Amino acid sequence: MLSSTRQMVACVMTLFCLAASLGTAHQIGTVQPATPQGEKTTVDNAIALWNKGNYKAALAEFQKNIEADAGNLALHAKFAKAVSGARNRHTDAAAKALNDLRGLYARWMTESPARAVYPYTAALLLDRTRAAEKEQLLLKAAALDRRIVEPYVELVNLHSGYDDMLARLGARVRLTVKPVRRSGKSA
Length: 187
Known about the structure:
62% of the residues lie in helices and 0% in strands. By secondary structure, the protein is mostly helical. It has one domain.
């Protein structure tokens, strides 16, 4: 019998494969298409401000940009992924700004409960210590808009450990290790 985590991963993978076979997996966030790699977006200035430690200005810039394009999943995700590194900065200002951003998403989820982009992005802002909450937000986003695949991908990452940078690095190392030739055998 499979463990509940394995069952969840199997279910998510089955749903993802089903979505792919139905031709919907190519719609990376029908909320808005993803931004091509390397292309400048409207949140790049906010990310630059964040990286300089000017968190208050970054949040103001982000809000201004998002108001003009609130449903753009790619912009929300790009900003959330860029700023979630603030967890590793270990400064009070970074932690407060990240909490302010989480509060902003909580407010947006209350104001627009039918938008999948808000719970999805709120989930991206959570680390592994809040895995249960992250899972609930991803499931909510998936239920709100079944045409986007990102929540399913994040669920697989969450349950496989690949949302954790060290786990990803460890898997990459395991995959690249070559078998050692046994001594005692002649070539």
